[in-house]
Inverse folding.
């Protein structure tokens, strides 16, 4: 990966909807070589997709919580069952396995506190292998969906 590839990636992170012509102009390439590089970055798995950023509050999802999960045991089966179940929950925006205690960090979104309580009681507390859940409510997001530093 060279400086031009990094410039392409930086531009696509900034605006993934720009045309190939605009992108080529911004990274000072002609369209064909720029297109070849973008395709190569996609095929190599460096670019994993394109998406729109949505405002959760505008969609009625203004409540966010960080949920720390401690597992009863860390067997291959219990970890697999837990991770498969978490991957099925649409309100879990991020799930990260951690070293140490707790075992997982989940970023969860809901409409409001009552909606979160239902989600917590009905789905999160019922996840397989869970010993303890600890929630921290998000007051305000300062940095979100930041572009990678290239």
């Amino acid at each position: 990966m060279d400086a031009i590839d990094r410039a392409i990636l930086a531009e696509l992170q900034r605006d993934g909807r720009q045309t190939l012509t605009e992108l080529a102009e911004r990274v000072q390439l002609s369209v064909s070589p720029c297109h070849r590089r973008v395709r190569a970055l996609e095929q190599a798995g460096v670019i994993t997709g394109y998406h729109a950023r949505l405002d959760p509050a505008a969609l009625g999802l203004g409540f966010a919580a960080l949920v720390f999960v401690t597992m009863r045991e860390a067997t291959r089966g219990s970890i697999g069952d837990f991770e498969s179940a978490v991957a099925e929950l649409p309100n879990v925006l991020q799930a990260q396995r951690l070293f140490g205690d707790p075992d997982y960090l989940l970023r969860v979104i809901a409409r409001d506190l009552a909606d979160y309580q239902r989600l917590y009681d009905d789905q999160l507390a019922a996840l397989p292998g869970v010993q303890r859940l600890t929630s921290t409510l998000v007051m305000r997001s300062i940095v979100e969906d930041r572009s990678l530093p290239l």
